[in-house]
Amino acid sequence: MRTHTAYPQVRCVLFDLDGTLVDTAPDLGAALNRTRVEDGLPALALAQLRPVTSQGVRGLLREGYGIGPDDVRYATLADRVLAHYTDNICVDSALFTDMPALLARLGVQGLSWGIVTNKHTRFTTPLVAALGLPQSPSCVVSGDTTPKAKPAPEPLLYAAAACGVTPGECVYLGDDERDIIAARAAGMASFAVRWGYIGTDKPIEDWGADHIIDHPLELMDYLPPAA
Fold it and tell me: InterPro entries of this UniProt entry (predicted)?
């Protein structure tokens, strides 16, 4: 039986979207592969693309075409990938295993939750609507909601205000180092999630997160019990 909580003041749990709340890698990877096939290139395995998915189209094009934003082909290829993604935004995307149970537990314990993502609104809104979430988030903050995106703290601070809580009453979960940097700058406890895409640039243990968790329901060990 749990005898204490690490963050008894917490009133709100905030999630990154891609790779934390939702497994969007199948649809994002498919968008890249449709573009590659159009160019006469073979489709890449999802296992190869999954680690870069949290970096969005930038990561996908680096993996799929070996180019970055400074390449003259980048803008056109990015537009093509994103067009394919827009047309197939929630075919195979789904909440990660045990995430529905976690959201239900948060509701039982009277805690609100929200989404803070670098995904732009034009993708976030239809994706969230199509997911059929078991509980509605108290806020959805996209990459273009505030002037600066993560790793700047502004999106997280905006989310806290939108949910009617202070930053210190929030925790933030993410699968990318910039999520942890943003949480630290916003004054929120940070949780790095091993079930996410993680990437290959730096080990998760070196991100400086307050905690690393392996499964969504592990979060409950750090939150206040039901009143």
Answer: HAD-like_hydrolase_sf (IPR050155), HAD-like_sf (IPR036412), HAD-SF_hydro_IA (IPR006439), HAD_2 (IPR041492), HAD_sf (IPR023214), PGP-like_dom2 (IPR023198)
> What is the Cα–Cα distance from 194 to 176, expressed in whole angstroms?
10
Domain 12-23+93-222 has what CATH class? alpha beta
**Residue 57 backbone phi and psi in degrees, to 5:** -65, -30
My answer on whether omega of the bond before 42 falls inside 30° of 0, hence cis, is no
Check if 87 is active-site. Answer: no
pLDDT tens by residue, 180-219 = 999 999 999 999 999 999 876 789 999 999 999 999 999 9
- What number is the average pLDDT over the span 145-168? 98
Structure tokens at 119: 């995904």
Write the pLDDT tens digit of every residue in 74-85: 999 999 999 999
The Cα angle at residue 19 between residues 13 and 23, in degrees rounded to 5: 110
Tell whether the torsion through CA atoms of 204, 207, 208 and 212 is positive or negative. negative
Burial call 123-153: b when 16+ CB within 10 Å, e when fewer = bbeebbeebebeeebbbbbbbebbeebbbbb
Q: Is the pTM of this model over 0.85?
A: yes
> Cβ distance 81 to 89 under 8 Å?
no
Extents of the domains making up the chain: 12-23+93-222, 25-87
pLDDT of residue 181: 97
Distance CA 57, CA 68 (A): 10
Residue 13: both structure tokens together: 């749990």
Angle at 108 between CA 157 and CA 24, to 5 degrees: 55
